[in-house]
Design a protein that fits this description.
single chain, mainly beta, Sulfite Oxidase, Chain A, domain 2, Immunoglobulin-like, five-stranded mixed sheet, 23 strands, binds the ligand Nc1nc2c(c(=O)[nH]1)N[C@H]1C(S)=C(S)[C@@H](COP(=O)(O)O)O[C@H]1N2, binds molybdenum atom
């Protein structure tokens, strides 16, 4: 079966809302809970949810009959049915998706927006078709510069704005990359409604805002898109007035084997965590158990997929009891290293500084 019935879809939503750590309401925004981050794959029910509007009311039969409007830039619209896409060559790919606002809560001074801790990130195996195979079905006009994607969700952006849909564009180079997919499955199941049922864009290595959910139209455009979610939001604005739009996820890592403030009984301790670097590969992860005084190289445990986070581990035998500050630091093959401090920016994006975690080692009484 391609999808579950509407009732089950509705039921799933309340399960999600219970399982996730709620960060926003109307629409629901939720983080993956800390213990679920200690796993390479995030189960669908624990995958973080970030929507700007209430999700559209798409029933199972709406999903089965879904079609996407495709315009190569000449105004002529070709409709492609989801069922036609499903018959095309299937592409399956592991992709870690991180919301650009992940860890916004760590910034000092605080900025407005969803106050995410470390859980606005998740990893899934996505299946669908290469967007490039779909684009081949129309002739892109030669003056096209970007491809614009529209979701079926609508709402008011800010009080002074009218109703709008969720719109984002991609440069041609990224749109034509065979790894950019239109996904209709997530971890082997049809997409849950909150994650874009029946079909969404998945842009590997980019922050989550690029991966448009509930995709209903694709259009080649002649001028770079500058709509609300591209010209106003998802721009890194530094204190010195410089700014740039967000694209690839910045290099980052964190400890997942322990919770902040956890009591741990003395003995050999298996430290674990995750590291990722957008479209680049992670080269190494170093770990400190003494607040950054000394560093040891962790083992990288894969899986070695291009666009998903990697697991790392380090066995450690503490030399003394009491508080210890654990920190991980990643480096990628392009020579980028995770910064010690995140760079403050007005809208609180791309927060990737080191994330110290404190544990308390107590005496083994047995
Ligand atoms: N149509 C639509 N697509 C969207 C959004 C949205 O609000 N509407 N939010 C974006 C943002 S900011 C993120 S981080 C990801 C979140 O995807 P998820 O909810 O499946 O985790 O979807 C992106 N795609
Ligand atoms: Mo996001």
């Amino acid at each position: 079966m391609f999808c579950k019935c509407t009732k089950e879809t509705t039921d799933q939503v309340s399960i999600f809302n219970d399982a996730l750590k709620q960060v926003g309401d109307k629409p629901f925004v939720g983080e993956t809970p800390q213990n679920a981050l200690d796993s390479w794959i995030t189960p669908n029910a624990l995958f973080y949810v970030r929507s700007h509007f209430e999700y559209p009311d798409i029933s199972c039969s709406d999903g089965l009959n879904w079609s996407i409007s495709l315009d190569g830039g000449d105004g002529h619209i070709k409709k492609i049915k989801l069922m036609e896409l499903i018959k095309m060559p299937k592409k399956t790919i592991a992709v870690t998706m991180e919301c650009a606002g992940n860890n916004r809560n760590d910034l000092d001074p605080k900025v407005s927006g969803n106050q995410f801790d470390s859980g606005a990130i998740s990893n899934a195996i996505w299946s669908g078709v290469s967007l490039s195979d779909v684009l081949k079905q129309v002739n892109l006009t030669s003056d096209s510069v970007e491809i614009l994607f529209e979701g079926a969700d609508r709402g008011r952006l800010e009080s002074e704005y009218d109703q709008s849909s969720y719109l984002r564009s991609l440069p041609l180079e990224i749109a034509n990359d065979p790894d950019t997919i239109l996904a209709y499955q997530m971890n082997g199941e049809s997409l849950p409604i909150e994650h874009g049922f029946p079909i969404r864009l998945v842009v590997p290595g980019w922050y989550g805002m690029a991966s448009v959910k509930w995709l209903n139209s694709i259009k080649a455009i002649k001028k770079p898109f500058s709509g609300y979610f591209q010209g106003k939001k998802y721009i890194v604005k530094y204190k010195n007035g410089k700014e740039h739009p967000l694209t690839e996820m910045q290099i980052k890592s964190f400890v997942t084997s322990h919770n902040h403030g956890q009591d741990v009984v003395n003995g050999p301790i298996a430290l674990r965590g995750l590291a990722w670097a957008g479209r680049a590969a992670v080269k190494s992860v170093e770990v400190s158990v003494d607040e950054g005084e000394t560093w040891e190289t962790a083992s990288l445990n894969g899986p070695n997929d291009t666009y998903s986070w990697q697991k790392w581990s380090l066995d450690w035998i503490p030399e003394d009891l009491g508080h210890h500050t654990l920190i991980s630091k990643a480096t990628d093959f392009n020579g980028n290293q995770q910064p010690i401090e995140s760079v403050w920016n007005e809208l609180g994006y791309a927060v990737n500084g080191l994330k110290p975690l404190c544990i308390n080692i107590s005496k083994n009484v047995s």
